[in-house]
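Render Serine acetyltransferase in 3D.
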Amino acid sequence: MVKTRAHVSEVDPVWTRITKEAETAIADEPLLGGLVHSSILHHNTIESALAYRISLKLASPEMPEQILREICDWAHVADPEISQEARADIVAVNDRDPACDRYILPMLYFKGFQAVQAYRVAHWLWHNDRQDMARFFQMRSSEVFGVDIHPGAKIGKGIMIDHAHSIVIGETAVVGDNVSMLHSVTLGGTGKEEEDRHPKIGSGVLIGAGAKVLGNIKVGNCSRIAAGSVVLQEVPPCKTVAGVPAKIVGEAGCDQPSIEMDQLLGVR
């Protein structure tokens, strides 16, 4: 085990930090030993741990954990980008969420992170002619996490969804890299249109709690959407929008709103 960990530390610093934090967690709270061992220390790679955690959460009488775990394992082997994106998501959550001070926390406890990782497997299924299984993943993620992401949506890396309650992301939505959003965000359509009908969110965007972005509109890179806003028109890059319907109220205030997480709209 020591030899394996030393090798991993050379190529996977995220996983090495998680395993070290897991050992500390058990020393601090022995009653969590079973959870931490089964979820983290029993595995040699982050891919294995992710497959275990996702399958455990999504399993039901309709679909046993073992089958779901095999599906997740296949996805990680077929597309290594899935676990690379997961690493970026872990770092993003740790950097941006003040409630997160360890890499192990998203893996064990944060449903926003777990829901995004379940989506990533579902997205792989969707694009490999397994749409029905992808829909099963979507259904169970919605039931378990309260996060409904269509497997056809395109979501980048470095994603942080804080609290992650009542998140809805539609089929043709696109979310860039390093995006942060809070609870009750909707990236939805405006009616019964069937083609490209959902928002295109640029990289570095911050979307406040309860914001609704509707229709096939673009939200420019490094912009901010204030909490409770309803966005119906295109948002230029590096701007802040607020209101119902949302209007431009100023500049974004910084180069990377999704990282700064400043939602005060210039008020101090």
